[in-house]
Amino acid sequence: MKIIISENQLGLIRRMSEVERLIDPIMDDVYSYLQGSNPSPLEKRLYRVFESTIAMKLANELANKTKLIGDEKVTLRNQLQRYITNEYYTKIRDYFNDRLERTITESNYEKHSNLIYKMWDDGMDFYEISDLTGLSIEQIIFLLKDKEIHIDCGLAYNLVGLLYRTNLVNKKYSFENISANIEFSWDGFGGYTTFVYHDPSYKLVGFSTPYWNSDCETPVDGSYFEDKESDEYYDSYDNQGLTTSYTPQSFESISELVDFLNNDYPKLLIEPIEKLLKYYKDRI
Predict the structure, then answer these.
(1) Which of 21, 95, 206, 231 is the most buried (most CB within 10 A)?
(2) pLDDT given at position 106
(3) Is the per-residue pLDDT at 8 higher than 70?
(4) Distance (Å, rounded) from C-alpha 54 to C-alpha 70?
(5) pLDDT at 205 over 90
(6) For residue 220, what is the enclosing H or E element?
């Protein structure tokens, strides 16, 4: 059986890929247009207007790219409009609902964040806020992390222990310029940070707690050393009085402290770790 395809049907088929390519930016444009100067999400009652405007705008744009005129152009435009409405119904609906849900979620986050910040500003600590709201310490830190909070060395010490309970702080760091990595963990009983350093030749375990005892410094001590080539080891805590060369005196947000712990802090440990490696190598 011979199938005859009209010029308009052929034109529709040719433009299916164009619909797929253009529909995302068209949805963005139409949504912004209907919002006007109001940044709030569109009300649900406007969905049909949103849907029909997308179909009409996209169909017109594609029809205008052809050389068709008169009734043939109108027919192609109408075919495109029906095709978009029928075939992209789910995509358009999901886009509309996603914008609505995302805005509600962002709005709720900001509302909760402001409430927790007011509690903090009124003098409540993390545990008091947690008892009152039922939120975990990790949730409270997340809500406060971008707020303006002056953090001195005493508060920084308290926050370091709390931050290591969250996913905001990296527990493992690999150095780019040397073949080495370092892993961190927080000892909640002792209130200190431990590290395990590895390079191709040595393993070093020790302590490196930023703002230890609420002081504005980071002491670095070793407790176990292992030479991987000879299998010799030294298992003893030694306090050499080493510190990192720099520890910030303050921060203006929890995010700033997080950034320090994730980036500068591991790099600052290399110098005292190298001194500890030399110290332990001389003892085995």
Answers:
(1) 206
(2) 56
(3) no
(4) 22
(5) yes
(6) strand 219-227
Locate tokens 């043939």: which residue? 72
Report whether 120 contacts 144 (CB < 8 A): yes
**Tens-place pLDDT, residues 43-75:** 888 889 999 999 999 988 888 888 888 888 888
Torsion, Cα 104 109 110 111, to 10 degrees, reads: 80
**Beta carbons of 85 and 48 less than 8 angstroms apart:** no
Task: Return the closest-CA partner of residue 145 out of 128, 167, 124.
Answer: 167
The 10 Å CB-count burial string (b at 16+, else e) for 131-153 is eebebeebbbbbbbbebebebeb
Residues 6+ apart with CB under 8 A from 93: 47, 51
Distance CA(244)–CA(273), nearest Å, equals: 9
State the Cα–Cα distance between residues 232 and 64, nearest whole angstrom.
79
pTM exceeding 0.85: no
Element (H, E) at 281: helix 270-281
Write the CA distances from 21 to 25, 34, 69, integer angstroms.
Answer: 9, 22, 24
Q: Where are the domains of the chain?
A: 7-87, 172-281
Q: What is the pLDDT of residue 6?
A: 46
Q: Nearest 10 degrees: CA dihedral of 221, 224, 230, 232?
A: 120
Do residues 116 and 144 lie in contact, with contact meaning Cβ atoms separated by under 8 Å? yes
The rounded radius of gyration (Å) of the Cα atoms in the chain is 31
Query: By CB neighbour count within 10 A (0-12 exposed, 13-18 middle, 19+ buried), where does 284 fall?
Result: exposed
List the structure tokens of 145: 């992390």
Contacts of 276 (CB under 8 A, 6+ apart): 204, 206, 220, 221, 222, 225, 240, 242
